[in-house]
Every structure is written in C-alpha cells, then in structure tokens.
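Quick review question:
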C-alpha cells in the first residue's frame, strides 16, 4: 500500500467499502473488499497496483487466478489506444455494456432537453403548460435504462448475481398514527356554589378513569353569552362606464373599503361518553345496600357529578330509592381526599341516613375521595352532627363484635343471591386479621349469611367442605368436597363464589374443582373453564 495512488478515472468499479458495495473509493484502504462475485471478498493483492489502476481488468480475482497478472511491458495501454484513435478509439476500449449505458444516458439527456424546449416554447407563446403523463415510449426508455444500469455480474465461471444493495431507500412514507387521548390529571379544586353568589363552575378529574366535576347553582343559572348578529355590507361592484361626450376626471377614493367582520367561532359541543360507574341503592327489605354497575353518560369527564345524578335518577329492577328525586347538585369541591357536595335541599329521602351513606359509598369508589362533607345551600349537614362522613362498612356481618379497625380486623367480601333471584348483595364478614384472605373468604361464604338469612339465599349447600385452595398467577383454584356438586342453583353457586374471590386484590380468575376433579366432570364442559372477574349487577 506504499505505492502512490494511480491517476485517472479508471479504477475498479467492483471495489467497495466493507459490507457496502454501493460506496466505492479511488484510494486504497484495508477496509475495501472486492464485490466482483457479489459478496465481499478479501483482496490478497496490492490494491494500488491492480484494483485501482486502469489495468483493473487484470485483477487476479476477476481472472480467477491466485497470483496477480502484470501486463507485459510492451503491451499498449487503454490510454494509448484511446489517444491514437480519438473518440472512435476510445469507444473501442469500452465494453458493450458501457457503450449501452452511455447511449441510454445520451438518449435520456436528449429527452430532457426536448421537454424543457417544449415548455419554454409554450411559455413564450402564451400557452398554458400542462403536465402530461409520460408517454409509453418514455416509460419504456426509463425502465430500460434502470434495468441496464442495475449491477450485473461479470462474465466469469464462478460469478453469481449481485444481491440488492444492503441499505435500500424507503419506498413509502409511513402514515402518521394518531396519538392516544390524554389521561385525565387529578384536579382537586371546584368552588362551592352559594345561592346568593354567582357560581363558578369547574371540572374536577379523579383517578385515570375518574373525573369529578361541579354543576351550576339552580338559583343562579348560567347566562348564555350574547350573540352579536353581524350584517355584512356588500362589497362595492364596478358599474359599467356610461359613454359621455366629454371625458371627466374621477376622484380617487379617500378611504379604502373595510373587510366585513368575521362571525364568532362556533363553540365545540361537550364530549359525552358512556362509563360504567358504581351506584348503591336499597334492597327490597329496606335493610341492605345493593351495589350495581350502570352505564352512565358522562359529559366532559364529569364522572362524580354523573354518578350523583344517576343516584338522583333512581334505581331499576325493583330496588329501593334512597335519594330525593327533586334534589339538585350545585357543586363539588375536593381537597385532600375530602369531597364537599352542595345540594339545593337535603338529598336523603325522608331524612333516612342511608341516603347520605349511599352517596358516600358511590363517591369513595373514586381514589381521590375518602370522606364526604354534605351541604345544603352552603350549610354543612351530616349524620349525628354536621361533620364529614367516611366510607361505612357495606352490610357488615360481625358475629364476634370486632372493632372496625383495619389493623386488627379483616374485612372479607362475600356475595349472596338476593331474595329477588336477580341481584347479588355484598356482605362484609369481619374476622380477626389473617394472611389467608382467600381461604377465609371461601370459608365465610360456606358458613352462610348469618343474621341476613331473611334477605339473601344460601347458594353453596350446607355440609360443603373446602379441601384445598391455591393461587397461581392471579387464578384461584378451589377444591370442594362432593357436597358442592349438589347445589340446586348451579349458576348462582358459581356466580357468588367468583364474585367474592375476584373482589380480592390481584385475583383475576377462579377455577373450581370437586374432589380433585374439574367441575366439568360433574356438571358438564362449560363449568370447567377459568371464570374471569365479572361485573356486579350490571345495568345498561
């Protein structure tokens, strides 16, 4: 590599950078490889003397030799032949492929010059140039040129076709994808409306799927912004000049005409979407709360206001109403987990405290709320006082009279079928603190509803025993004794068990076994699946 770089443009066209034959250089470097066979091959000769000279056709790789072939000292070179014969002699030195390439390039240059000449002539003569589609002849010439210019293998016994360039240019541009809708950020400030003051309505967003909002006061309705009717004056139009015997001078206008004002931009309609929210009503006995999951229309992510309005709307399917249907929500304010809800009248029907508790149970399903302060026209109200109310225990079953203390008491969620045969009712069994929460829940469900037997039905037969229980990747495998297979209402037995266990954190499904065998062997194939987390008393 110490010899100087030969001058002239005749260096080897098959010499390329390592792993990229599309990049060729006219200077020797150890990174260069020979692509005469289609794949990069180490060059065992001096690149300066053979691969980068006019004698590159004598390359040992090209000739299939192991040693470099040096031309005879007296052999005439390509440059001497071209100099002696002029242009014709230069053409004789070219290969047929190179002659075809030069001919196609000259033809394409002639076509381009012709197109520009026609366009220039149309521009000079006043014609409207039109962009015409390329003629079939032009397309054929371009396709032929493209196919001719593509790399071809050299005539060699071991030559193989060159593979496509490792880094092809992109043939299409990917379409931009829409970005996902922004996640609602927790917003905690919403002003409390007082009837004697104007109401400033704000929106409060809760957890990622929860947004809390405020409604305006009924005594201070929001006045619509005045609509200004704009009448656009017609623009002056030029009148045809009347012939006159003598020409008269016309004075130029002193003020330019003004453009008519633009009408106000239309206000975007509020976005409304359906969300499934937790609501609490009374059961047919008037003693227990019944949770339902209802699809509720939510405007502009105002889910808390939508939930309260759904409670005001009332229950369906025979449940008991607990909220006054004439009550109206004025505003919601949230600060440090305390939600202050302001109504125009006491919201609980007939003063029943269960009405206030149903609102607390509904709102505390949102992660940003753990207490609720009730107000009527800005004045605090409550139960046994006027202070805030925390989330109560839903239908507690406490046979051992344990304290309501999460540090020493476990609250096990169990579901039983209501006497109406349609809804399931959640009963919280209070037991001493335990780490076997799933096992404790199943045993509490087997033991029965206790003092609530008058309001709910036992779905798991008496005498059923829990043989084993395990959890694997969120799926609880429960194995019962043979008495479980004697359940009279099979769907209700499975439903209450699955609803009770999937209420526990990190439980995603339940699979049931009886005497170590899948329930499908006892009741049929549909009962052998893994039951996922269901909706609780869903309403459309």
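Suggested answer, residue by residue:
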């Amino acid at each position: 590599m110490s010899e100087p770089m030969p001058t002239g443009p005749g260096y080897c066209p098959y010499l390329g950078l390592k792993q990229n034959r599309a990049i060729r250089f006219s200077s020797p470097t150890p990174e260069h490889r020979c692509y005469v066979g289609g794949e990069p091959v180490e060059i065992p000769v001096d690149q300066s003397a053979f691969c980068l000279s006019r004698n590159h056709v004598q390359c040992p790789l090209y000739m299939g030799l192991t040693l470099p072939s040096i031309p005879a000292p007296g052999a005439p070179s390509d440059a001497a032949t071209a100099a002696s014969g002029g242009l014709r002699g230069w053409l004789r030195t070219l290969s047929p492929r190179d002659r075809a390439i030069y001919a196609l390039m000259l033809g394409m240059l002639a076509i381009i010059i012709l197109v520009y000449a026609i366009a220039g002539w149309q521009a000079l003569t006043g014609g409207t140039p039109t962009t015409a589609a390329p003629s079939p002849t032009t397309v054929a010439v371009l396709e032929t040129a493209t196919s001719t210019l593509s790399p071809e293998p050299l005539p060699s016994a071991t030559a193989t076709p060159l593979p496509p360039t490792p880094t092809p240019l992109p043939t299409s541009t990917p379409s931009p994808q829409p970005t996902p809708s922004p996640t609602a950020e927790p917003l905690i400030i919403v002003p409390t409306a007082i009837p004697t003051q104007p109401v400033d309505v704000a929106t409060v967003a809760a957890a990622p799927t929860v947004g809390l909002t405020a409604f305006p006061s009924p005594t201070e309705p929001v006045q619509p912004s005045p609509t200004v009717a704009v009448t656009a004056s017609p623009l002056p139009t030029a009148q045809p000049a009347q012939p006159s015997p003598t020409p008269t001078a016309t004075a130029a206008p002193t003020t330019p005409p003004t453009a008519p004002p633009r009408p106000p931009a239309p206000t975007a309609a509020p976005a409304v979407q359906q969300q499934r929210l937790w609501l609490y009503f009374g059961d047919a006995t008037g003693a227990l709360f019944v949770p339902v999951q209802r699809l509720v229309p939510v405007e502009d992510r105002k889910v808390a206001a939508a939930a309260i309005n759904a409670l005001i709307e009332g229950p369906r399917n025979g449940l008991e109403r607990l909220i006054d249907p004439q009550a109206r929500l004025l505003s919601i304010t949230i600060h440090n987990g305390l939600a202050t809800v302001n109504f125009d009248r006491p919201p609980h029907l007939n003063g029943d405290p269960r009405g206030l508790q149903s609102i607390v149970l509904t709102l505390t399903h949102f992660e940003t709320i753990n207490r609720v302060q009730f107000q009527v026209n800005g004045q605090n109200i409550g139960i046994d006082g006027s202070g805030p109310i925390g989330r109560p225990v839903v239908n507690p079953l406490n046979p051992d009279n344990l304290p309501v203390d999460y540090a020493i008491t476990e609250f096990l969620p169990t579901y039983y079928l209501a006497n109406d045969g349609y809804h399931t009712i959640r009963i919280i069994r209070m037991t001493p603190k335990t780490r076997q929460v799933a096992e404790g829940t199943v045993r509490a469900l087997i033991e029965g509803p206790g003092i609530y037997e008058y309001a709910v039905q036992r779905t798991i037969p008496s005498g059923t025993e829990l043989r084993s229980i395990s959890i694997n990747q969120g799926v609880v495998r429960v194995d019962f004794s043979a008495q479980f297979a004697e359940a009279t209402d099979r769907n209700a037995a499975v439903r209450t068990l699955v609803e009770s266990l999937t209420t526990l954190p990190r439980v995603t499904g339940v699979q049931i076994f009886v005497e170590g065998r899948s329930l499908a062997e006892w009741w049929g194939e549909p009962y052998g699946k893994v039951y996922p987390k269901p909706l609780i008393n869903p309403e459309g």
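Why it works: The chain has a mean pLDDT of 75. The chain has four domains: 15-85, 96-149, 203-218+272-390, 396-539.
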